[in-house]
Amino acid sequence: xxxxxxxxxxxxxxxxKVGALAGAGFSxxxxxxLAHAGQTAPDPKGKAAIFIRLAGGPSxxxxxxxKPNAPDTHRGEFKEISTNVPGIRISEHLPKLAKCADKYAxxxxxxxxxxxxxxxxxxxxxGNRPLPSIQFPTYGSVVSKVMESPRDIPPYVSIPNDxxxxxxFLGLEYGPxxxxxxxxxxxxxxxxxxxxxxxxxxxxxxxQNMLQRYDSAFDSVGKSDQTIAxxxxxxxxxxxxxxxxxxxxxxxxxxxxxxxxxxxxxxPFSQSCLxxxxxxxxxxxxxxxxxxxxxxxxxxxxxxxxxxLPPLDAxxxxxxxxxxxxxxxxxxxxxxxxxxxxxxxxxxxxxxxHYPRAMFCLLAGGGIKGGQVVGESDAKGExxxxxxxxxxxxxATFYHTLGIDHRHEFNTPTGRPVMITRYxxxxxxxx
Length: 431
Fold this sequence. Notes:
Blueprint: H1 28-32, E1 48-53, H2 72-75, E2 80-82, E3 89-91, H3 95-98, E4 104-110, H4 117-126, H5 139-146, E5 156-159, E6 177-178, H6 201-217, H7 219-224, H8 226-243, H9 245-250, H10 258-261, H11 268-282, E7 286-290, H12 300-325, E8 332-337, E9 341-342, E10 354-355, E11 359-364, E12 372-374, H13 391-401, E13 409-411, E14 417-419
Parallel strand pairs: 1-7, 1-8, 4-12, 5-6, 5-7
Antiparallel strand pairs: 2-3, 4-11, 8-11, 9-10, 13-14
Helix pairs in contact: 6-8, 11-12
């Protein structure tokens, strides 16, 4: 899950990320001083969310929207297989996902017009078509702002990092806590800022007591300056996290049961999905997991069947099955997407190019009705057959599962009211 360059020259880390601040000398306390939560609508089905980003743009024609009757110029090399839901068929290289198709919904014919990686990625990560005049916050930033989370657990975690860490007008305080690496099988994850390297909890206690004595000497200043007062508050939360057995245990895969661990393979993406289930269980409200490498302009089918589809199949199926086994699928909203699909017509390099007019998304949990296909692309996979589903609609539906009104307005620092998702509508067939 290393970083790569996309074909258009944009690096996957060409975005400001709160986790990267650690390299400039920022501590976990500094990070926590940039994070706090708000409120949501009462009693949503989704209590937390997992967002899986397939960076690079996966081919809809070779994964969840095959066209076996299309001409040779479009069809591709893969065959369809049946799933455990009658009538739903997906790629032969997704056998594990075929066995749990009842747990997720496939959206076909999702369509937009932004064929550049950065623009398309931003659109699918925010539910708003990018504008030059404003930066919209990503799903994780919105959830971090409006959903309460325990004091001793990070509210928003990205594994290993977040290429779409656009907190937008909400500000950097709503960015993710990035792990910076992926977990290893059956091992405790060494997360910078949470792992006590060479110090004990007693050392941390002494440092905290010293800081509290120092703060008391400037008590009047702190009370008169909201920023200083907030820093003290969030430093205490970071301290609570470092002392928290719950937080340390969440990142320790050795604590997981053998039955759950057996649902995942040993690859980084799959282990990241396992970690995501543990973080939800511990109280984290939003987790982003990245799986890149989908920019298949060349050698499309060989790359998909050997490098891309096996980890996707193992990781997402393991995630859904593990959440269900833990009794958390209904209360955890899951969203799987790339930034666009790929050209139905095969290019001269045995690959497929950028194609936003037709793509797929997967939704599960949080009250989503699994075991169905919503939307349809035309006979060649070139666009929606009847009605188009927009990224805005998918975002509105995702927020709906979490009890967040996508039409709620936030105010920018200049006082401008901006809706969470401006043009989307909840897809009623899904909920």
